[in-house]
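Backbone-to-sequence.
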């Protein structure tokens, strides 16, 4: 019995390490191309050239941004990690969506500009924050639990600001701006639903494992490390560009 348990433990650890290496490889490849909220060269060129209302293309661009935005996916994973009821998932994801939508729309509309490295560093910290929250670190360290709903909303505001900052660099035409921004935001929410569906399906199977809680600790530690890495990368980029 003890031997079987140890074999399972070794396999679980190996799976976690493999997952961590895969995530790091994806992040390193993505980082070599652009910032977390960057827009591909082709999409940037399209944004700069179009004029007028383009609903479908902007929905596509919004959905593409969400499903390829690893910082969003990591934070979203952290948010729903220990949420077992769909009602709770809906509440937290809605709070994140509201925060994300408000600052993205207002940021572009009113031209709020924040250094992309700074805002992306904060977004990296949001991943760290949520991983530590899932690990129960705040209760252990400080003896209290921060308001998780408020934190989700606040970090949603930062995530939206990061996207707005990047979009502003490409100077979307004013003709049809509001409609295009709303369409983009719809696309972001569509992408979020798709990403969330995949996460919930995987989590549903994973939670059936008797080793879930032990593996969950390892997974959140990996998530925390990735968040620190994302933050450090942006800080280094900030000083390199100064």
């Amino acid at each position: 019995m003890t031997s079987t348990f140890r074999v399972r433990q070794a396999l679980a650890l190996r799976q976690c390490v493999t997952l961590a290496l895969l995530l790091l490889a994806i992040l390193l490849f993505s980082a070599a191309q652009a910032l977390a909220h960057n827009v591909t060269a082709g999409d940037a060129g399209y944004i700069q050239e179009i004029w007028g209302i383009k609903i479908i293309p902007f929905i596509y661009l919004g959905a593409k941004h969400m499903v390829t935005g690893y910082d969003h996916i990591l934070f979203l994973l952290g948010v729903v990690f220990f949420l077992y009821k769909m009602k709770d998932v809906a509440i937290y994801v809605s709070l994140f969506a509201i925060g994300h939508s408000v600052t993205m729309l207002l940021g572009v509309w009113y031209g709020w500009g924040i250094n992309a490295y700074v805002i992306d560093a904060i977004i990296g910290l949001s991943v760290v924050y949520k991983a530590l929250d899932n690990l129960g670190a705040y209760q252990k360290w400080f003896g209290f639990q921060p308001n998780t709903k408020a934190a989700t909303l606040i970090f949603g505001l930062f995530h939206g600001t990061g996207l707005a900052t990047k979009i502003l660099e490409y100077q979307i035409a004013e003709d049809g701006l509001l409609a295009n921004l709303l369409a983009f935001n719809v696309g972001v929410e569509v992408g979020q639903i798709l990403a969330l569906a995949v996460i919930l399906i995987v989590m549903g199977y994973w939670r059936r494992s008797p080793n879930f809680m032990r593996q969950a600790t390892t997974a959140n530690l990996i998530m925390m490390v990735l968040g620190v890495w994302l933050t450090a990368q942006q800080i280094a980029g900030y000083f390199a560009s100064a």
